[in-house]
Amino acid sequence: MTNKRIFFIHSAIAALLLSCAAPVAPAHAAASPSLPAPGDAIGQHLISAERTSWELAIKRDAAAYKAFHAPDFFTVTGTGVVRRAPSEASAMDSQVRFDQCALSGFEVHFLAKNAALVTYHVNASGLDHGKSFHLDSYASSLWLKRDGRWLNVFYQATPAPAT
Question: Any idea which fold 3-159 has?
Answer without folding.
Answer: Nuclear Transport Factor 2; Chain: A, (3.10.450)
